[in-house]
Structure formats: C-alpha cells, structure tokens
Amino acid sequence: MSRFQVIAFDADDTLWHNERLYVEAQSRFKKLLAPYHSPEWIDERLYQAELRNLGHFGYGIKGFALSMIETAVELTEGRIAGAQIQTIIDTAKSMLSAEVELLEHVAETIPLLAQRYPLMLITKGDLRDQEIKIARSGLADHFHRIEIVSEKNPASYAALLERHAIPPEHFLMVGNSLRSDVLPVLELGGSAVYVPYQHTWGHEAADPPAAQPGYYHLAHLGLLPELLERLDGDGQQTMGSNP
Amino acid sequence: MSRFQVIAFDADDTLWHNERLYVEAQSRFKKLLAPYHSPEWIDERLYQAELRNLGHFGYGIKGFALSMIETAVELTEGRIAGAQIQTIIDTAKSMLSAEVELLEHVAETIPLLAQRYPLMLITKGDLRDQEIKIARSGLADHFHRIEIVSEKNPASYAALLERHAIPPEHFLMVGNSLRSDVLPVLELGGSAVYVPYQHTWGHEAADPPAAQPGYYHLAHLGLLPELLERLDGDGQQTMGSNP
Predict the structure, then answer these.
(1) Which top CATH class is A19-96?
(2) How much is the pLDDT for B237?
(3) Global ipTM
C-alpha cells in the first residue's frame, strides 16, 4: 500500500501550457505600445499594475486584460485609441478560447498514475476558465476530485485536506510553482514535487527550499511514476533533488 | 424530523444586495456616454455585449467591466478617451470592494434556521469575489457547506446533490432567480422557494412556474421559518404561492 493517500496536481503549466499565453499576449501588448515606450518599461509598468490590482481582480485572464488596459491608458497618458483598447480585449478573448495543449509526458503519465492512486487536481484562478480548460484537456476523468481555489497557501491547503480527511503526511502535491504548489504543502508537513516550467510569472517565483524531507525536484512529469515507485518501495523518506 | 435534509440559499440578491451595484455602475456608464447616445440605446448595446461575451467572460464584475469598455469603444466609434476608460475600470474596482449589505430579515433568519437545519450556500460567479463577499457578510459560520459554481443548471445541481448524497426530494433551494435557483431544482424533483429581489438582470428573468408541488413564493426571507414549520408540520406537500 502506498504511503500516499492522494497524489494532487496543479494544472496550469504543470499539466498544460498556460503562462506562454500570457507571454504571447504581453508581446502583442508591447508592440501596440511600441510608439510610446520601450518594451522593458512596458513590462515593468504592466507587472506593477498586475500586482497592484491582484487584491481587486485576483488571478486570471480577465484581471490581466483590465491591467493591460489600465497600463495602456497610463503609459499613453490617455491617448490610447479605442481600436487599440479593443485589440487588448480581443487578445483576452483569444486567450480564453485557446486550445489546451498538454505538456510532454502528461498524456501517458496521468492515466498510468490514475490506475495506482486517487488523483486530485488543485488549481487556482477563475472558476469558469479553469473548468473549461479541464474539460478541454481530456484529463478530467482521471481525477477523483477537482478543486478550484482562489489562493494556494497553507490555510487553503489545510482546509482542503481537512475537508477530504487527508493527513498531510499522506499527501503529495505536484506542480510548477514553488510558491503555490511546493512551499505551503511542505509547511503543512506534506510532500511536494517541483516540476519547473519554461516560464514563471514574477509573482510565482520563489527560492527552492533547501533539501528537506518531503521535497523532490523532477525535470519533467514523465519521471514521476518512477519516483513514486521508489518512495513506496523504500517505505521510508527519500530526500532531495536527485531521484 | 424535517423532510428537508438541507436548506440551500443563493447569495447575491437573496442574502445581500448585489444587482443594484450593477444598476448604479450602469447609471454612471450612461452618464459617461451621454454626449454620444441615449440612455436606452446604451442600455441595449451594453446588454447585447454582456450576452455576447458571456461565453468568454462568464458572470461577474470583471467581465461586466470588459463589456462596458467594449461598448464604450463601439458606441463612440473609438473616440472614447483614456480617462473615461479608466473611470470604467475604477467603477469595477469600487464594485469589487463594496460593502456587503444584508437584505432585510436575513440577519435574524439565517442564524435561526441554522439551529434547525444544515444550511448550504450555493452561489455562482467569480470564485474570489464570492469568497470575499461571503467573508464580509458575517454569515459564513452558519453554513455547513459553501459551493461556488460557474453555472446553475440542472446538471450542476445534480452533480452537487450527488457529491453531497442529498436526494432531490429532501433538498430545498431558496433564491431570487427563477432561472438559476428555482426552475432547475424543480426539474430535478427538489423544492424551491422564490423570493424576488427589487432588480432582476434581463438574463436571469423567466416566467414563474405554474403552481406545482415543491414551488413556493415568498415576499421576503423573514417568512421562510414559518413556511418550513408548516411544511414539516403537515408532513405532506403544501402547494403554491400563498403560504
């Protein structure tokens, strides 16, 4: 029997590409404002607007669109044209209807693991957008439970584990964000596998934890079944980033 | 013992004021565009934009803000000024941080009912905005379960009832929207109490169902305990809109 009662996965940039939609949108945004400012300054001001607006808008594409519009007004001193505002809104719409493209190894690994463990999906962001992406991913049936939360921190993980009666020591979380998927779970005494993605939004960046029990680092999701076999085979904690 | 295993409540415009925030925002929006068009035409075009964008943005203030911006661009043929766009974004922010004001009778009725029944809150919209309003309302502790869904239809109610192992015939839903709170629950064989609010968004409007078993209509929430006592006292179905 496995030491893990549940294996939980983050979704965006863990199972499918997401951040690159933002990178592409931001690149179109910089082109739009190129007559006014340098790309670096536009990036910087947009990031500041996103952070400032996080308390109002939370995570997700609609809030990102409103922050882009606000930044465009600010950086053009109000001279931004209506047609350009519409371009920003259209960018948001195309982000919202983008195809869901699975990351490498996901399509084989998730069904394989679903035969051995109850899987859970824990994702943060807009409820509706996340539901649509989960449906489009074709992976929904492999997950026993899908939880969409507004924030991933120790309190929200603790509430979720309590609701499902999962002791933290039997919980493993897999994700690409140290800040959202790894550190809060380790803090509760759970285990966490960090699988980095090619892009990380500034706000999600964090220092990797020092080697400690329960923390693992994999180059890609295809390595997870082997790690789990080894952990369950050992019957004891294996440590560090070199599985 | 009650025939109802759970009494569930809608939140916006059932427990606290919400639609009037939209009505007020829309009134500011019409003032902003008054130099260009009549209030009626602005209302009409904004409503069309909201419906058109529902598939992209879903429900909630951020989507509403993006629809207002899109309508402003459209109705001014792109001549809308940056400062006016910012006014629309600021309106959205003030909606998002508005105080939660309970409807009459709610502050007494919910704690009273919570002593007698397990209460559930079922609300649709932006996850984060709903969580914030629930926290601000001061009512959260009276609810056994809080469910935030992206859509209220027979399928989403059926999934929710199954997840909580509630047979529809032991489920009572209370809300201000015939379309979202009443009709889908009746369709599943549950009971529903319609408590109209002073404003109804066009999209939520529907014809009241003909008198049928399980459908009740109350003028305000303060009348609910008496209705429930009567229903449980009878031990049999009481019908219609004249409790």
Answers:
(1) mainly alpha
(2) 46
(3) 0.86
